[in-house]
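Researcher: Please predict.
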Amino acid sequence: MYSDPSLSLIDFIQSSPTPFHAAQTLAERLQAAGYQPLDERDEWNIEEGGRYYVLRNQSSLIAFSLGQPGALENGLRMIGAHTDSPCLRVKPQPELSRHGLWQLGVEVYGGALLAPWFDRDLSLAGRVTCRDAEGRLLNLLIDFERPIAIIPSLAIHLNRDVNNGFAVNPQTDLPPVLAHAIEPNRDLRALLASELHSRHPEHGPLTVLDYELSFYDTQAPAVIGLDNEFIAAARLDNQLSCHAGLEALLASDDNQASLLVCTDHEEVGSASSCGADGPFLEDVLRRLLPDDSQRIRTIQRSVLVSADNAHAIHPNYADRHDGNHGPQLNAGPVIKINSNQRYATSSETAALFRHLCEQTGVPVQSFVVRTDMGCGSTIGPITSSRLGVRTVDIGAPTFAMHSIRELAGVKDVAYLQQVLTAFLNAEQI
């Protein structure tokens, strides 16, 4: 459908303002390609050579293709990514009516770069749990799509020193403005019920019981630059990797046993039932391989590529990188290495990834954080330590990670898909 990987990525991001929508978009594309849905509450009748996907919490997804007969015994080629991104989440009782304006209180999710959230056209999306007229509980996704909120900056005339440094107070500075407060008793739950009813009239009147809602920037992703060499978008970390893993899985030859796992809550530590530090992947593998001994043998023949964006060297802040490890945009995926196991890469797995890049003509780079700076982490060490699987941490180089709008290279989108497809097709790993 898409000849340009960047256009497919743009469409994916536009369809995925929250982890719930990202998982739904993944599921829809997998099902359109012939993957069959599984429900963890049911018995699974897995057929040899079958292709399946399973959702947990509507925000995490695992898809797998069993390949040719006997392929599973030779090990799984696994790609891991995460569906969540730093953002502003709506509080349970958020309504604020102040000085004639109606606002919603928010909580910062993950390590968000907060300054860019000001003066952006924001919308609201997420999951709503409600009750229909017959008393049934429903989980429905919602997306207002249009701009309905903004966080206005304070004018420089009232804060003359703002350009010398501004410490954002997330409690007092971030509540977005949605409307005038002239309407009495304006209520978020009533607003959600009305919006859902307009989109799902088949359920009749709905009573909203609870929700998980995120504000997001409505500015569409765009290919930019004098030579169209960059892609600017929200949530590139880590929807770029989710998309690349999906496209690689759909483009693979289905000869090998392959698995894509995209989990929620990475930005807050992954410790949840549907996060990488939860049992989701292990539960699926136990059902695929019920025999303990066989499962261990298969895992020890497997490799996980943990795909999560890497820090490209910023021309205005080059001193924030180690002098010999400054990945550049459009120069290929980055192998991420940390001796203290913040990344799970070993010499063996790094060599395997380099070998795949060489075979496919994809340039490859390395990243090591400055020794005098702290290092972030990924799902790689978590999954590797839980499963005992060989793991390499890699990612597309990116600017402005955790901002409301991030920047990556167009070529790197294609490079990452190319090498991940080669990984899934590799006869030996």
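Model: Residues 5-85+234-425 form a domain with the Aminopeptidase fold (CATH 3.40.630.10).
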